[in-house]
Amino acid sequence: MAEKRMPSFAFEFIEGGGEDEVSMARNRDYFNTIRFVPQTLVDTSQRHTRVTLFGQETPMPLVIAPTGHNGIYRRDADMMLARAAAAAGIPMGLSTLSNTRLERLPRETGGRFWMQLYIFKDRELTRDIVRRADESGYEALTLTTDSTVYGMREWDRRHFRAPGQLKLRSKLDALTYPRWMFDVMIPHGVPKLENVIDFFPPEARDTRMATTFIPTLFIPDITWDNVAELREMWPRKLLIKGILSAEDARKAANLGCDGVILTNHGGRHADHVVTPMEVLPEVSAAVGDRMTVVIDSGFRRGSDIVKAMALGAHAVMVGRAALYGLGAGGEAGVRRAIHLLSEETDRVLAQIGCPSFDRLGPQFLRRDAPAPAR
Ligand SMILES: Cc1cc2nc3c(=O)[nH]c(=O)nc-3n(C[C@H](O)[C@H](O)[C@H](O)COP(=O)(O)O)c2cc1C
């Protein structure tokens, strides 16, 4: 439904993965190599999906992942996601590159918010986001570490003749979506990156120029020293989003971080990288008793969530699953997506004979043995 309701350049921004999309495909395929081993004749009539996340109870171990540029799918898209998350009682991640100023969410919707952070070349911009997120009462800061070099999403790039400049074919395609045009583009044009725009030079504030300017904000010079600095600056929960090994998770723990987000960015950046699910057991064994382990990339079904929880995750983030709902039906669509995931999770727990997440573990799973090395 989302695909039918927006021009293809917008949908492919959601859908695309890096290069040959091997990482992205493996994120999904890996779930199919894990099967449930149900326990039978277990009373699951009183079952529930509640967990405690950073000391607060949530109805589901689910978090909305931070995604940038959401305003190209729907007007006020970040607020729609925020309201749906608040209604479901789950935290919502807001991207630094959102089309909504971060102050608006806590003020207008209530709920739990996690601010996603990039460390840009202009460190003052980063400090500004941290200070404002603190003043607005964000519960957590999630530092994204896997995007210092932009991913090459070829499907996405095919729509542009130059950064920010759609090809004629894609412009004509957009014109065939009048509802989208009136909702998103009229009267203000492409939505602005409200959190960071004040820091752009005047000539880059026009959206077309901003698209060219954004990649220049990233330089791959950030290191664990920046994490230590951030730990000093930020008083509440700090998570590193971009971890894919037990070694790096231990480093985060040793620097006083409160959590890690295992992710390959939904397969949107580096191709041919491990899928977070395959490293989850080792990360959980290394740091699961002292940090919150969140995982994302490829989660589409309740059964995926149950598998991750059985392998030691404390919560799951969804990016595209929420955006499909948003594109299909705005706030109601996001609510529907969250409802589907919750309902499926509940049903799977019942079907495998597990009344709650605290009774779940790897004993409920079986995996194909890896192919023998040649
Ligand atoms: C359209 C889109 C935009 C994204 N923008 C950001 C972003 O601005 N910052 C960030 O840390 N991650 C971003 N991500 C990555 C998500 O936070 C998350 O890691 C990923 O979507 C998880 O994979 P999934 O889409 O398969 O659920 C984006 C993902 C998508 C699909």
What does this protein structure show overall?
- With 374 residues, the chain is an alpha/beta fold.
- 41% of the residues lie in helices and 14% in strands.
- It has 14 helices and 14 strands.
- The chain has helices spanning 8-15, 22-32, 77-88, 104-109, 123-135, 154-157, 168-175, 178-185, 207-217, 224-233, 246-254, 276-287, 302-310, 320-351; strands at 34-36, 51-53, 56-58, 62-64, 92-94, 113-117, 140-144, 160-162, 165-166, 237-243, 259-262, 292-295, 315-318, 365-367.
- The strands form 4 sheets. The chain has an 8-stranded parallel sheet. Strands 1-14 form a two-stranded antiparallel sheet. It has a two-stranded antiparallel ribbon with strand order 2-3.
- Helix 12 (276-287) links the parallel strand 11 (259-262) and strand 12 (292-295).
- Helix 3 (77-88) packs parallel to helix 14 and helix 13 crosses helix 14.
- The chain is globular, with a radius of gyration of 20 Å.
- It starts with 7 loop residues before the first helix and ends in a 7-residue tail after the last strand.
- The structure holds flavin mononucleotide (FMN).
Short description:
This protein has about 375 residues and is α/β, with parallel strands linked by helices.
Question: Strands, helices and their partners?
Answer:
Elements: H1 8-15, H2 22-32, E1 34-36, E2 51-53, E3 56-58, E4 62-64, H3 77-88, E5 92-94, H4 104-109, E6 113-117, H5 123-135, E7 140-144, H6 154-157, E8 160-162, E9 165-166, H7 168-175, H8 178-185, H9 207-217, H10 224-233, E10 237-243, H11 246-254, E11 259-262, H12 276-287, E12 292-295, H13 302-310, E13 315-318, H14 320-351, E14 365-367
Parallel strand pairs: 4-13, 5-6, 6-7, 7-10, 10-11, 11-12, 12-13
Antiparallel strand pairs: 1-14, 2-3, 8-9
Helix pairs in contact: 3-14, 11-12, 13-14
The protein binds flavin mononucleotide.
